[in-house]
């Protein structure tokens, strides 16, 4: 009985396992732009495929040219299982971007991270 439960647990975990395949992590060198900013908006876009537009108020530009105080970066989902980043309104992040479909994107395969509030 224990073996059967173990086998079922393994099969179940494999079917819900991590779906991102990050051959390379996009860091400072490979990123199109890198900035620190606060999330001021999140919008779900459903055509022609589902993704999320994240609007940031930029506080610091680390790499690249960002001419506006706000910028929109796309992510495929709002969780790591969907290769996205779990952005939250008012959260402060250091964001690493790349170009996909002629738009700025970020995702699980970048060094994007949430910052502590005192930074």
What does this structure look like?
The protein is 12% helix and 39% strand. The chain contains 1 helix and 6 strands; from the N terminus they run H-E-E-E-E-E-E. Strands 1, 2, 3, 4, 5 and 6 form a 6-stranded antiparallel sheet that branches. It is globular.
Summarize the helices and strands and which ones pair or pack.
Blueprint: H1 2-15, E1 33-45, E2 51-63, E3 70-75, E4 92-100, E5 103-105, E6 113-114
Antiparallel strand pairs: 1-2, 1-4, 2-3, 4-5, 4-6
In short, what is this structure?
12% of the residues lie in helices and 39% in strands.
Mean pLDDT: 87
CATH topology: OB fold (Dihydrolipoamide Acetyltransferase, E2P)
* Total domain modules: 1
Low-confidence stretches: 11-18
- As a whole number of angstroms, the C-alpha radius of gyration is 17 Å
Describe the biggest sheet? 6 strands, antiparallel
Helix content, binned percent: 10-25%
**Principal-axis shape:** globular
Number of helices: 1
- Give the ordered list of helices and strands: HEEEEEE
CATH architectural name: Beta Barrel
CATH top level is Mainly Beta
Structural class: mainly beta
Percentage of residues in DSSP E strands: 35-45%
Number of strands: 6
Distance between the termini: 52 Å
């Amino acid at each position: 009985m224990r073996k059967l439960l173990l086998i079922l647990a393994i099969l179940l975990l494999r079917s819900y396992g991590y779906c991102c395949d990050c051959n390379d992590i996009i860091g400072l060198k490979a990123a199109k732009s890198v900035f620190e900013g606060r999330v001021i908006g999140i919008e779900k876009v459903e055509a022609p495929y589902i993704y999320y537009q994240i609007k940031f108020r930029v506080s610091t530009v680390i790499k690249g040219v960002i001419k506006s105080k706000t910028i929109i970066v796309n992510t495929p989902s709002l969780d790591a299982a969907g290769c996205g980043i779990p952005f939250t309104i008012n959260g402060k992040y250091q964001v690493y971007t790349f170009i996909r479909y002629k738009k700025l994107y970020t995702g699980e395969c970048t060094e994007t991270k949430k910052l502590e509030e005192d930074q």
